[in-house]
Amino acid sequence: MGLRINDTVPNFTAETDQGTITFHDWIGDSWAILFSHPKDFTPVCTTEFSAVAQLADEWAARNTKVMGVSVDGVEDHRKWKADIEAYGNAPAGFPIIADDGLAVSKAFDMLPAEAYMPDGRTPADSATVRSVFIIGPDKQLKLSMTYPMTVGRNFAEILRALDGLQMSTGNGVATPANWVPGEDVIIPPAVSNEDAAAKFGEFETVFPYLRKTKAPA
After folding, report:
1. How much is the pLDDT for 117?
2. In 3-state terms, what secondary structure has residue 147?
3. What pLDDT sits at residue 149?
4. Pairing of strands 64-70, 96-98
5. Catalytic residue (one of 32, 44, 45, 52)
6. pTM attached to this predicted model
7. Catalytic site residue 2?
8. Strands 210-213 and 204-207, bridge-based pairing
9. Rg of the Cα trace of the chain?
10. Which of the residues in the chain have pLDDT under 50?
């Protein structure tokens, strides 16, 4: 069975280009994002990891740690980072897991249990290792997205989704379509009008089941 929203994510110990990590310990009390890639030195993935590097201040502002996964070894990761940093003109300070044994890819259900990497493999052999997992401080999966190899990930959307998760998780609200910080949020239907008024103050009733209010500070 695949990993589902609100499942506790697998804990594992793995080698990275920055040393050995145990995943839950590494997350600590932070939010975390795991970005997976099917192979080092691939064009789309290089642009994506460069985008992750450029957003270092944004991750830090959201108390969020980022980690990559690629189905190659530590030495390849270290060499690849030179290209990542050159393309993005930013230091790639995040670790990349060396998942050459496929343990993490299988634990997160990106590859079937019987999968193996043949000699002379290409990225197509691990094409499904193209996911984003957003994980809360409680070590539970909050959101996942999976992309094909031909479509680069939209990091503005990943940041927006992270903002929405942090808003909703911390304040007991939901966010509407295309929401960005500063816009109104939705009061859940389970909250009565009386409780909504006590908690949020003024609110707009669009439909009995759709009520909007100012986003909590």
Report:
1. 63
2. coil
3. 87
4. parallel
5. 45
6. 0.92
7. no
8. antiparallel
9. 19
10. 1
